[in-house]
């Protein structure tokens, strides 16, 4: 939930900033997609770590 | 959705398209690498007027899809969904399901997956102690219809030889319907691990001790 709040706020800020600078073009969409991929990768790694056996020891 | 994903995993394994993690990883790798190479080559050669942001966006979309798919795959592997079905596959099936029993025995002898038969038996109430909930039953019918393309009313009763796309050694021999099914996974929402456990208990199967 914390990451959704932080990631969502970051994404909205990035989208707003990019839209104000470049309007709606390919660069804005590409930047948001790269940001979404980074968020997705973070969630993936976090899920894998939290559900692994290593999380029982640390 | 994890239960739905687990059902799809079982059914996909049942028809022998992507039975193992190695196969599913190859499926994503063999699509992502050519996409990147072709896009890079086209832009560098100037063959098309594609901008770098478009290439980057396309690769990002593929990356989001692949990572989401692998995440759901991994979580369904570690969740209760598959373990319940595995237990159902090992459980004795009631004598009323003669065809199901015969098919199960035949498949067990040949080492073929039993998940589809287990789901079918659980849906009919033939597996002692395990029964699908209405939501689980709905998921089962929906995704089985997609995965099998309506070829078999009872999973496993159609001969493997009747499915020319069945080839466990290749990930490129997937039928179009299963491909469409797999590419539809990316729209599924993601939930944290704790929610997955709750969802499993709520939607998957009710265990009667």
Structure characterization notes:
The complex is a heterodimer of chains A (58) and B (209). By secondary structure, chain A is an all-alpha fold. Helices cover 79% and strands 0% of the residues of chain A. Chain A is elongated, with a radius of gyration of 15 Å. The model of chain A has no long low-confidence stretch (mean pLDDT 79). With 209 residues, chain B is mainly α. Chain B is 64% helix and 3% strand. Chain B contains nine helices and two strands. The longest helix of chain B is centred in the first third of the chain and has 27 residues, at 52-78. The A-B interface holds A 26-27, 29-31, 33-34, 36-37, 40-41, 43-44, 47-48, 50-51 and B 51, 53-54, 56-57, 60-61, 63-64, 67-68, 70-71, 74-75, 78, 190, 192-193.
Give me a quick take on this structure.
The complex is a heterodimer of chains A (58) and B (209). Chain A has 58 residues and is mostly helical.
Record the SSE blueprint.
The complex is a heterodimer of chains A (58) and B (209).
Chain A: H1 2-22, H2 26-50
Helix pairs in contact in A: 1-2
Chain B: H1 2-14, H2 21-45, H3 52-78, H4 80-90, H5 98-110, H6 115-124, E1 130-132, H7 134-148, H8 176-183, H9 193-204, E2 205-207
Antiparallel strand pairs in B: 1-2
Question: What keyword list fits this structure?
Answer:
heterodimer; A: 58 residues; mainly alpha; 2 helices; B: 209 residues; two-stranded antiparallel sheet; elongated
Instruction: Measure the end-to-end span of chain A.
Output: 21 Å
Main beta-sheet annotation of chain B: 2 strands, antiparallel
Percentage of β-strand residues of chain A:
under 5%
Per DSSP, the total helix count of chain A is: 2
Rounded mean pLDDT of chain B is 59
């Amino acid at each position: 939930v914390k990451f959704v709040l932080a990631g969502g706020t970051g994404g909205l800020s990035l989208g707003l900033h990019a839209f104000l600078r470049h309007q709606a073009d390919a660069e804005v969409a590409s930047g948001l997609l790269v940001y979404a991929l980074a968020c997705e990768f973070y969630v993936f790694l976090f899920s894998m770590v939290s559900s692994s056996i290593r999380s029982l020891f640390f | 959705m994890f239960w739905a994903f687990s059902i799809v995993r079982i059914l996909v394994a049942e028809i022998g398209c992507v039975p193992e993690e190695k196969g599913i990883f190859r499926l994503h790798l063999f699509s992502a690498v050519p996409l990147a190479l072709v896009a890079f080559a086209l832009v560098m050669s100037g063959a098309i007027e594609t901008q770098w942001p478009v290439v980057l966006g396309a690769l990002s979309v593929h990356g989001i899809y692949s990572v989401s798919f692998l995440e759901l795959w991994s979580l369904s592997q570690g969740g209760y969904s598959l373990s319940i079905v595995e237990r159902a596959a090992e459980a004795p099936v009631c004598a009323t399901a003669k065809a199901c029993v015969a098919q199960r025995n035949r498949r067990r002898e040949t080492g073929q997956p039993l998940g589809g038969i287990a789901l079918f038996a659980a849906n009919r109430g033939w597996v002692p102690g395990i029964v699908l909930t209405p939501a689980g039953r709905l998921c089962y019918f929906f995704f089985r219809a997609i995965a099998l393309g309506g070829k078999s009313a009872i999973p496993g009763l159609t001969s493997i030889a009747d499915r020319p796309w069945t080839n466990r050694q290749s990930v490129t021999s997937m039928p179009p319907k299963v491909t469409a099914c797999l590419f539809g996974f990316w729209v599924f929402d993601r939930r944290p691990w704790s929610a997955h456990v709750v969802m499993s208990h709520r939607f998957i199967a009710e265990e009667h001790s």
